[in-house]
Amino acid sequence: MVAFSKFAAIVALASTTSAHTIFQKLWVNGVDQGQDVGIRVPTYNGPITDVTSNDIICNGGINPYKTPLPSTIINVPSGATLTMEWHHGGSGPDPSDASDPVDPSHKGPIMVYLAKVDNALTTTVTGLKWFKIYEDGLDVATNTWAVDKFIARKGLVDFKIPTCIPPGNYLLRGELIALHGASSYPGAQFYMECAQINIVGGGSDSPPTVSFPGAYSGSDPGVLVNIYYPPLSTYVIPGPRPYTCGGGSNPTTATARTSTTTSRTTTTSSRTTTTTTTTSSRTTTTTSTSASRTTTTSSRTTTTSSGTGTGSALYGQCGGIGWIGPTTCASGKCVSVNDYYWQCQP
């Protein structure tokens, strides 16, 4: 059984090599700050799976940063609407890439944290204190994940900077968690990068904080979870709830863009049309999370398909318990990653 588990982990890792993502651009009130500007972007788009590793803070360990590290600190007005932009490859959007911004199988939540620092250019990220300002998880009524909306918006996620937090330098930590393999631990895939920002103006609140590592446990119900079967009736996003000013909501604002053409050294793109988005309210019910787990031993088979031009796209889902979509591959073969997730591979 141990040998089988190790083999399954290896297969799962190999099967998702080409389905990762990187936070690599930040927009401030509709203004594109430029590719890689002010963001500690790694050279590889792979995930972190160990919640006890320092790599879960800002990445950059097993996925080394591009060098030199960015020297830009992005100025952000208090209350500004920021937009994270993520892509599968490390050089911006690629319309020819079916896994850009991330493969549709990588369903899960998206979050944003801030940590107050003396200097946003600091190379030391251990020991920082973080508070969450944004999260989006699962809409159970429509079975829509944050990642589904993220894909529909071509890798864009909007959120607001709270007006009540103090001015100064911060590290902004954007995080996406892919849960397609999270029925065992380590299985959830954590993608995160940190941006260097300076908040101009603001208030004097002192939000409660958490530490990374430490904010998540491998047994958290939002980390150890089977998202396929039976259908989820609720999903608890890992970590604390977002900090809000005066106990109110912190709505997001989706903003339309007229251009996404930028250079690495200049800020050239702007958005000129603003649309009002839906303000979503969340009711969080705190419950005890004592959960039982049943381990089922099952046989596993690999189905080979010659690729007939129909069926799931390469690296798309093609089978598993509860799966009702295509069970053949347009190219490659359908390989079992776990009992609930089979994937088309070359």
- Supply Rg: 20 Å
Name the helix and strand elements from N-terminus to C-terminus, one letter apiece.
HEEHEEEEEEHEEEEEEE
Anisotropy-based shape: globular
Oligomer: single chain
Query: In CATH terms, what is the architecture of the domain at 22-212?
Result: Distorted Sandwich
Order of strands across the widest beta sheet? Answer: 3-11-10-5-6-12
Question: Percentage of helical residues?
Answer: under 10%
CATH top level of the domain at 22-212 is Mainly Beta
Calculate the terminal CA-CA distance, rounded to whole Å: 27 Å
Contiguous helical run count? 3
Largest sheet: 6 strands, mixed
Signal peptide: 1-19
EC number: 1.14.99.56
Organism: Dactylellina haptotyla (strain CBS 200.50) (Nematode-trapping fungus)
Pfam family, one: CBM_1
What features would you describe in this structure?
The chain is mainly beta. Among the domains are: 22-212, Coagulation Factor XIII, Chain A, domain 1 (Distorted Sandwich), CATH 2.70.50.70; 316-345, no CATH class. The strands form 4 sheets. The protein has a 6-stranded mixed sheet with strand order 3-11-10-5-6-12. Helix content is 7%, strand content 24%. It contains 3 helices and 15 strands.
Core attributes:
346 residues, mainly beta, Coagulation Factor XIII, Chain A, domain 1, 6-stranded mixed sheet, 4-stranded antiparallel sheet, globular, disordered N terminus
What's the arrangement of secondary structure elements?
Elements: H1 2-15, E1 22-28, E2 31-32, H2 55-58, E3 74-77, E4 81-87, E5 110-116, E6 129-136, E7 138-139, E8 144-145, H3 146-152, E9 156-160, E10 168-178, E11 189-200, E12 210-211, E13 317-319, E14 333-338, E15 341-345
